Amino acid sequence: MTSPEAEALVRDHTVYSCVMGSHAFGLATDGSDTDRRGVFLAPTPLFWRFDKPPTHVEGPAEEQFSWELERFCELALRANPNVLECLHSPLVEYVDDVGRELLSLRGAFLSRLAHGTFVRYASGQRRKLEADVRQYGAPRWKHAMHLLRLLTSGRDLLRTGELVIEVGPAREELLAVKRGEVPWTEVERRMTHLVEENDEAARTSPLPPHPDRSRVEDFLVRTRRASALYSAAPLVTRSRR
Questions:
Q1: In the chain, count of helices (H) and strands (E)?
Q2: For an engineered disulfide with 178, which of 3, 60, 79, 145 has Cβ 3.0 to 4.6 Å away?
Q3: 4 or 234: which carries more pLDDT confidence?
Q4: Whole-model pTM?
Q5: What gap in Å lies between CA 218 and CA 214, rounded to an integer?
Q6: Which residues, in sequence order, are CB contacts of 100 under 8 Å at separation 6+?
């Protein structure tokens, strides 16, 4: 259960929020959930206490999840697929000045590290699907659809240097997988082929080997400093009276 203090961080200090999931990917159908993701900036004085602010908060709304800014940047620098995709959602619901600067840094987070993280994440999901097939005779088709989507997104990122999460013309082909209309053997073949294409794209990718950590860190330090000065301003004003 989310504490009132954690809910207040999301409610009062969110700098960026967006819709993710099927709606952002262009794969929504009737009944699709609306997944919301966000980033909040915990006021700097909270870090001066023994009990630090949370690195992430679930809620307060259903299907809502938010990261504290520093944790979000750490994960994005590691090329975490879920976090990188959050930065590139076409469905932005809220953004303030800090959030706009975060979005302006999207390119600083991208690197060839994405090859390992996207393919590794997809491989883990594929093992789960294969376990479902062995146990139940069929995979979770929705998960299979999203695995294909992720591998395609990662391949195109490595090829072009840009992350686009909308599936565009591939929508109907992917939804056919979700409906179970594509044989599992064919889905497996597509997964294997996409991994091979990711490997090939990584060898000639225009992306840098590593993200621009110093640029992101500069943003984080300036943002923390500004938060500390803002929090201290009332105290300074009172001391001068």
A1: 11, 5
A2: 145
A3: 4
A4: 0.91
A5: 6
A6: none
